Amino acid sequence: MNKALKKNTFRVLNGIFLAFLAALCLLPIIHIVAVSFSDQAAVSANQVGLLPKGFTFASYKMVAKRSAFWQAFGISVERVIIGVIINTVITVLMAYPLSKNEREFPARKIYVWLLIFVMIFDGGLVPNYILIKDLNLFDTIWALVLPAAVPIYNIILTMNFMKQLPGTIEEAAMVDGANYFQRFIKLIIPLSKPVIATVTLFSFLNHWNSWFDGKIYNNQTTNYPLQTYLQNLISNSDMTNAAEAIENALSNVKTLQAAQLALTLLPILLIYPFLQKYFVKGITVGAVKG
User: Fold this and answer.
1) Domain ranges within the chain, ordered by starting residue
2) Phi and psi dihedrals of 262, rounded to 5?
3) What GO terms describe the biological role, i.e. biological process, of this protein (predicted)?
4) Its pTM surpasses 0.85
């Protein structure tokens, strides 16, 4: 078997394998969307596969009337905006000095090892819980944002990306009289757009998909972010009053849950295409050098 045939065979098998993995990810999403648009009788009879049965917008009309869903949606949007801004600013501000050599930043190795240490050895749930309680952050947006304010993996990824940037660019700017801050703003940030877009996407997904912290750091269900609200919905713990219980009894709970889950996917589907072109370059180049 010659090399060309081996290469073509590998490509075909690799394509089949990746298509299989993509199908495993997409089919459940397609099924949820199909259920959300299906008639409740068809859903109750388990007749819905990948296409809706008895196409209807009834579940979405009911979701539109649910103030609890939209309140949780708003809390998640607020969390994402604040959290992503904090994560991105801290990431680039820490990654730039850490990308320098020991001559420019003598304590660089110490800080890098400290970051790796705290990434591997976490304090645990109980100390975090006590800290949030002592800071009186329960039932506030800061309880969801501040514990994840320093994304160490993102910092290391960005640091490695900045390390591979040509040093001659900064040297030329330094000869022209640019200081570290000017070089950082006018050179490093524009050149680091791929990795910044990548870590921004990571931060967005982390904040948008997180539900457990919303559960433990909020005593009031009205302060739940969207994913925590949906977790309660799926476990049927969101029926906190008689009116809501009656509403669910008169409708098909599965279609209602599917509609809310489908709406939750929309922000990811809308944002990802804009950042996808930077994703591969940002994560591959940032992972090359240590």
Assistant:
1) 3-44, 59-286
2) -65, -40
3) transmembrane transport
4) no
